[in-house]
Amino acid sequence: MDPLHRSILVSELGLDEAEDVFEIGGILAPRDLMELVAIDDGSLHDAPLHPIEPPRVPTTRNIFHSIRDAGSLLVLHPYESFASTVERFLRELTSSVRGNAPELLAKIGGGDWSDETQNALADAVATFGSDFGYDLDEEGHPMEETAGVA
Question: Looking at the whole model, is its pTM more than 0.70?
């Protein structure tokens, strides 16, 4: 590093050039830069980011109704809240599937689809349910050992 750049860094960081600065061969690895992050000086860190609640997805309405009414919906994370969009979407979807599982499986079974398609749809519903801690029996009813577990 040329002496001008080194002196700028020493001055801006308030370092003692004789004790705090040394040269190494090559470039720094990311783990080496973590020491800079650990410096307890507020002027060296960004202000904490607090995501906003997306105005097109009000918390007072069912999220599916908000999405339906909005048409296309783009949520920008981390600027807009992950908890009030994606996590809420998954919670409400899981709740909806749990409440409507028998009806969903009846619709799947009663459709004009091939056996292969019906089996694939039933497997998808069962997989979705098990991914969220909710297992269905062959008739679409919650299995006793997982009923009510999220």
Answer: no
Angle CA 72–74–77, to nearest 5 = 165
For residues 138 and 120, the answer to whether their CB atoms sit within 8 Å is no
Query: Pick from 114, 135, 110: which is nearest to 123 by CA?
Result: 135
Contacts of 96 (CB under 8 A, 6+ apart): 64
| CA dist., res. 53 & res. 45, Å (int) | 24
- b vs e for 61-86, b when ≥16 Cβ sit within 10 Å of the residue's Cβ? eebeebbeeeeeeebeeeebbeebbe
**For the segment 25-42, what is each residue's pLDDT rounded down to a tens digit?**
888 888 888 888 888 888
Closest by CA position to 70, among listed 86, 55, 56, 89: 56
End-to-end CA gap in the chain = 56
pLDDT tens digits, 75-131: 888 888 888 888 888 788 777 776 666 666 666 556 656 676 667 767 776 676 666
Which whole-number Å values give the CA distances from 144 to 79, 135, 138, in the listed order?
41, 9, 13
